[in-house]
Amino acid sequence: MPAMINDPEAVARFRNQLVELTEHLREQMRRTDAAMEEAAAEWDDPQFKKYQAEFRQDREVFDPLCDNIEEFEQGPLFRLQQILEEYGNL
Known about the structure:
Layout: H1 8-42, H2 46-88
Helix pairs in contact: 1-2
């Protein structure tokens, strides 16, 4: 049975991991976008254009996902960390 995390330092590490994850994902997406645009400018291929259109559709859900992760990290997880710190100081 999983145990509840009641360690504010563990929550802080998890929050930092989420921040690093979203930063890394956004950077990788910027690189992928640039590579896709470069390839599209040099390569006139119907299959590539189809793939590029599908990639753009997938891309539309990417930013909201990162935003949700950031909101979770800054909202509920931050508050949980505060509560655990307060609890530890009793």
